[in-house]
């Protein structure tokens, strides 16, 4: 796809491009899963992390889960009144348009997930999404590629990368190696999970379920 005019959003008195020049979309091992990295975390992340944590106590947007989803979620990034949230929201929609090759990107649901020690999310999929997008805002300190690191993984027998023992048996949960500022997109029906997080501090990611057009029903009801 050729260059597109995506505009910019002002953060801290500076205009930050929604899609900076030279930003690449790379394939993971599976062609249906794409990875992109944004290098402006120093500009975007401090305000976005602060706003995320501040909204955790807002009963109109946040919800604390237990059981199969052991973390806190804050919904509707487009309602946060925060330019940094507006920026990553616009980037998720733009990534969808570029990967799906669609003129429109309608967000069915968006949310931030806050993980603290012992939090996790069991395997699940997003039945209402043609594609799901995840942005990694704060992954914690230390080696991120090991147990107890809150690793985002796929566990789906339709992915060859997950069937390294014997197809179509899901033997090997795995996912892209990511860092703060990485955004990934994948078919929403793929089964994925977040390993238990045992590092100090908080792990924060942001997610979007996106379609080319709006669909009926309550997305929060489907979210559990």
Outline: globular
CATH class: Mainly Beta
Count of structural domains: 1
CATH architecture: Sandwich
What is the H/E order? EEEEHEEEHEEEEEEEH
Q: What are the low-pLDDT stretches, counting only 5+ consecutive residues below 50?
A: none
Largest sheet features? 8 strands, antiparallel
Rg (C-alpha, Å): 17 Å
Structural class: alpha+beta
Count of alpha/pi helices: 3
Describe the overall structure.
This protein is α+β, with helices and mostly antiparallel strands. It has a single domain, classed as q2cbj1_9rhob like domain (Jelly Rolls), CATH 2.60.120.620. It has three helices and 14 strands. It has helices at residues 41-55, 83-100, 219-222; strands at residues 8-11, 14-17, 26-27, 34-37, 62-64, 69-70, 72-75, 106-115, 120-124, 131-138, 152-154, 182-187, 192-194, 203-211. The protein has an eight-stranded antiparallel beta sheet with strand order 3-4-12-10-14-8-7-5. Strands 6-9-13-11 form a four-stranded antiparallel beta sheet, with no helix packed on it. Strands 1-2 form a two-stranded antiparallel sheet. A hairpin with a 6-residue loop joins β3 (26-27) and β4 (34-37). The longest helix is centred in the middle third of the chain and has 18 residues, at 83-100. The protein is globular and about 55 Å long. The model has no long low-confidence stretch (mean pLDDT 92).
């Amino acid at each position: 796809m050729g260059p597109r005019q995506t505009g910019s959003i002002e953060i801290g008195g500076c205009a930050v491009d929604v899609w900076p020049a030279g930003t690449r979309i790379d394939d993971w091992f599976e062609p249906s899963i794409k990875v992109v990295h944004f290098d402006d975390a120093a500009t975007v992340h401090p305000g976005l992390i602060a706003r995320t944590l501040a909204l955790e106590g807002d009963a109109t947007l946040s919800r604390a889960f237990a059981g199969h989803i052991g973390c806190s979620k804050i919904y509707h990034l487009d309602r946060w009144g925060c330019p940094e949230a507006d920026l990553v929201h616009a980037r998720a929609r733009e990534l969808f348009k570029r990967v799906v090759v669609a003129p429109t990107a309608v967000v069915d649901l968006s949310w931030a997930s806050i993980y603290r020690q012992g939090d996790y999310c069991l395997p699940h999929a997003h039945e209402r999404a043609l594609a799901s997008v995840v942005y990694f805002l704060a992954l914690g300190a230390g080696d991120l590629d090991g147990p107890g690191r809150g690793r985002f993984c796929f566990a789906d027998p339709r992915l060859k990368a997950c069937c390294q023992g014997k197809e179509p048996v899901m033997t090997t949960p795995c996912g892209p190696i990511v860092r703060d500022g990485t955004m990934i997109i994948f078919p929403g029906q793929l089964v994925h999970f977040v390993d238990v997080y045992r590092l100090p501090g908080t792990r924060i990611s942001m997610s979007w379920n996106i379609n080319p057009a709006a669909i009926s029903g309550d997305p929060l009801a489907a979210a559990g």
